[in-house]
Amino acid sequence: MGDEVMISNIHVAKSKADFKFLTLHIDDIKAAARDCGVMYLKIRRLLDPSDPGLQEPGLKEWLDAPWRYKPRQPKKPNRPAKKDKT
Fold this sequence. Notes:
By secondary structure, this protein is an alpha+beta fold.
C-alpha cells in the first residue's frame, strides 16, 4: 500500500482547464483525523466542562495545541500560471 492518495475533480470538472488534483500523504490524513478528534473533545468540553473524561492530566495542553493538519492547495495543471502585476 502506498503512502499517498491522489484526489481529483476529474468527474465533475466542466472543462479541461477546471481539472484540479491534490496529493495527500498518509501523514496529512492522520493529522486531519487527529484534528477532528480534537474538535470533538473541544465541543464536549464546551457542553460539559466538568466531564470527568476531560480531566486527564495534559489533556488541556493537547487540546490547545496548534492544528496539526496544514491544508494543501490543489494543482491546476491545465491553467496558465498567473503573472505578477508588480
